[in-house]
Amino acid sequence: MNKVYVLDCTLRDGGYCNKWRFGFDNAKKITSGLVEADVEIVECGFITNKIVYSPEVTKFTTLDEAAKIIPENREGKIFVAMMNYGEYSIDDLPPYDGSSIDGIRVAYHKKNRYEALDLCKAIKAKGYLVFIQAMVSLSYSDEEFLETIHIVNDFEPYAFYIVDSFGMMKGKDLTRLFFMVEHNLKESIWIGFHSHNNMQLAYSNAQQLIAVQTNRNLIIDSSIMGMGRGAGNLNTELFVEYLNENSGKKYQLKPLLTIVDKILTRFYERSYWGYSLPNYISASHNAHPNYASYLDEKKTLTFEDMSNIFDMMDDDKKVSYDKAYIEELYLKYQEKDRVQEEHLSDFAERIAGKTALIIAPGLSSIVERKKIVDCAARNEIVTISINYDYDEKLTDFIFLSNLRRYRDLPAEKKGKSIVTSNIPAVDVYLQVRYKDLLNKVEAVEDNAGLMLIHFLVSQGIKKVYIAGMDGYSTNPDENYADQKMNFYTQKELVEKKNTGMITVLKGYQEQVDIEFLTTPKYVSID
User: Fold this and answer.
1) Residue 304: partners with Cβ closer than 8 Å, 6 or more residues away
2) What secondary structure letter does DSSP report for 508?
3) CATH assignment, 3-270
4) 3-state SS of 58-120?
5) Of 124, 193, 413, 458, which is most buried with the most CB atoms under 10 A?
6) Is 360:449 a contact under the CB 8 Å cutoff?
7) What are the pLDDT digits (tens) for 49-82?
8) Which pLDDT band holds residue 485 (cuts at 50, 70, 90)?
9) What is the reported pTM?
10) Helix or strand run (H / E) with residue 393
11) Distance CA 177, CA 146 (A)
12) What is the pLDDT of residues 194-203, one digit of tens each?
């Protein structure tokens, strides 16, 4: 019968959710709680040469730093850290003396496998337990995977892992890889499984694996509360309870629940992780989850659009995240040359000598509605609302750059719509080129309000009143007049958006007179 051991990776994989800033005291409480829960292997974080060490962060430049969060009484538990291939010099690794971590997990991509396995040999020679993490295991052909196993057999590390980096591994895939490893890996080497939960299969795959009839020692990776990038990981608390009920284990659940209650919940509230359609889409395309995060943060795409962009990707670009590449694809997808400009001269005549009142969907557009109504009633005002119709009696035009918002617009209102060329539209008043209206600040390069100002400037407008362009809050209830438009945005992205809006607006001020009609909460051009 196989023997199953749990490796908790909260302080390492969970760190993608909070930039590894758990706090020194919290990190110590987590390692102590995992020992108390009787989890056999505890991952303390990353070891890397690419940072400046901070005790508040679970990334370390020396093993002495990692040792600070390990309990004095280890109770026979194994403590490990992960090393990404190419991010730490073997010369900086002292011989093992038992004072810090016991083992090192080496993660590498297939293209680096020969060099990475040489590194693993050198780490073992220094006395450490070595865990081989063959990332994106499904990217290997059978021949490549078998070749890797044979190299591993030559120096007998502690464990060899099947790694479901993108959370897209089905049960049949896991079974196929497992038996390939089982039949070819030396019996002395443990077999590990690291999964992600993009398709909600981490729990069922773990159950399926431990049900296999084998005499192997198995290691299953998990994290408390499933904390991890994107869709997260297998939940430690769920899996150990399953092992207690089905495999005769005696893990203690209460210490894990205490960690959730006192530490992890507040991180979850700040930066949600768990199942989402974007993460499913990335997994279904066997692509890095950061691509999904990038596209989702745009808040301009339907899920069908996201899938179409993944369809455009080259297979060799999917494995490692390339921000410049996905940005290029996003802009290429949005820059469709659908234009309907037959009314462009008519529009220029209608705004000639007038002042534009643009109404964004921020909360102040409702709170200070009287200001908007009074302004819109003036003869010299042309009123344009953004991505929705603020009030059909007040608005002369509706500007839309967001396909989701366009689809929500009633058909009878499309005749006064100005849309960008990324939207497949018919019977609209104007359709203008999306790429012509972009700015150079990444966080807000295609912000609809800024795109509209750009368009108005190009048509000769001299003065713009802005209403409802309040900036962004981390509390979604504070962002939109229409609660159906709300979405959650992480604090870092919120700050980048607000700063970006201020930068671009100040730039436009050099070309047009801009005045806030309603009171913005998070942006200012004073």
Assistant:
1) none
2) H
3) 3.20.20.70
4) CEECCHHHHHCCCCCCCCCCEEEEEEECCCCCHHHCCCCCCCCCCEEEEEECHHHHHHHHHHH
5) 193
6) yes
7) 999 999 999 999 999 999 999 999 999 999 999 9
8) low
9) 0.74
10) none
11) 10
12) 999 999 999 9
Instruction: Check pLDDT > 80 for residue 336.
Output: no
The number of beta carbons lying within 10 Å of the beta carbon of residue 186 is: 13
Radius of gyration (C-alpha) of the chain in whole angstroms: 27
Please give the Cα distance from 197 to 231 (Å, whole number). 5
The C-alpha atoms of residue 56 and residue 176 are separated, in whole angstroms, by 41
Q: How confident is the model at residue 407, as a pLDDT?
A: 84
Cα gap 65→67, rounded to integer Å: 5
pLDDT in tens, 5-52: 999 999 999 999 999 999 999 999 999 999 999 999 999 999 999 999
User: What's the token pair of residue 298?
Assistant: 């745009």
Tokens 């509360």 sit on residue: 225
pLDDT for position 213:
83
d(CA 235, CA 13): 12
* Residue 117: partners with Cβ closer than 8 Å, 6 or more residues away: 132, 148, 151, 152
Burial of 76 (C-beta count, 10 Å sphere; 0-12/13-18/19+)? exposed
- Sequence spans of domains, the chain: 3-270, 277-334, 344-516
Under 8 Å between Cβ of 136 and 111: no
pLDDT of residue 425: 81
End-to-end CA distance of the chain: 71
Show the 3-state SS of 161-221: EEECCCCCCCHHHHHHHHHHHHHHCCCCCEEEEECCCCCCCHHHHHHHHHCCCCCCEEEEE
